[in-house]
Amino acid sequence: MKRSATAVWNGSGKEGKGNLSTQSGVFKQKPYSFSSRFEDGEGTNPEELIAAAHAGCFSMKLSFVLGAAGFTPDEINTQCFITLENGTITESHLVLKAKVPGISKEKFDECAKDAEQNCPVSKLLNSKITLDATLE
After folding, report:
1. Is the Cβ–Cβ distance between 44 and 34 less than 8 Å?
2. Are the C-beta atoms of residues 96 and 76 closer than 8 Å to each other?
3. Which helix (H) or strand (E) holds 111?
4. Residue 49 and residue 120: Cα distance in Å, rounded?
5. Geometric angle at alpha carbon 123, from 35 and 48, rounded to 5°
6. In the prediction, which pLDDT does 10 show?
7. Of 11, 27, 118, 132, which one has the fewest beta carbons inside 10 Å?
8. Maximum CA pair distance of the chain?
9. Residues of the chain with pLDDT under 50
10. Which pLDDT score, from 0 to 100, does residue 53 have?
């Protein structure tokens, strides 16, 4: 399975602007700019999208891990904070609040650690990157 997204950028890094779209069309030509990335301008940014992806992936993985351990969560609420410093993403910090009937704190912590280490986005954030570049 492969999923895709497209970014279109026009102009210089600081004065230019762009838009982002996803294969599913749920996210279609959403604007992003220097201002939306490094200031408080309108639009989205790559770090916000990485945070959403990591929170969503982790939450689903935790649900699978809990299920394998014999527990069904009532709710998994994950917030993710991506830190961008000096042009580098330095941290992805997950904040988890969950309601899981019948689970001990120790077992919950074990399941959460498993999900943190093994969700696909956690693994991606420290993975090989490949590039096919074409100049038109």
Report:
1. no
2. yes
3. helix 105-118
4. 15
5. 15
6. 97
7. 132
8. 59
9. none
10. 96
DSSP, collapsed to helix, strand or coil, labels residue 22 as: strand
Separation between Cα atoms, residue 6 and residue 4, nearest integer Å: 7
Domains in the chain: ranges and CATH:
1-44 (no CATH), 46-127 (3.30.300.20)
pLDDT at residue 136 in the model: 57
pLDDT on residue 78? 95
Q: Rounded CA gap, 107 and 35, in Å?
A: 43
Given this model, what pLDDT does residue 130 score? 82
Q: Is 61 left (phi over 0), alpha (psi -120 to 50) or beta?
A: alpha
Determine contact, residues 77/62, Cβ cutoff 8 Å. Answer: no
CB 13 within 8 A of CB 37: no
Per-residue pLDDT tens for 1-29? 999 999 999 999 999 999 999 999 999 99
Name 68's Cβ contacts closer than 8 Å, sequence gap at least 6. Answer: none
Burial class (CB in 10 A: 0-12, 13-18, 19+), 134: exposed
